[in-house]
Amino acid sequence: SSPANAATNVNTLPALTWAATTNVVSYTLQIAYDNTFQDILLNTSTTSTSYQVASPLYGLTTFYWRVRGIN
Known about the structure:
Largest sheet: 3 strands, antiparallel
Helix content: under 10%
Radius of gyration: 12 Å
Structural class: mainly beta
Number of strands: 5
Order of helices and strands: EEEEE
Strand order of the largest sheet: 3-2-5
């Protein structure tokens, strides 16, 4: 997946990508300010294995992202 774990100097409008999973109809993507995902910035669904962030993320800030397949 991209960007990789612990990536630095990532564009503020990153394109997030991940590997396809079998028997999945869609994916839930979350971007958060914390690694426990209590402070979520983005929560969206997509049928694609990529997502282009549309609004710039804050610079010099750590973000966490995860994807979950839904079947």
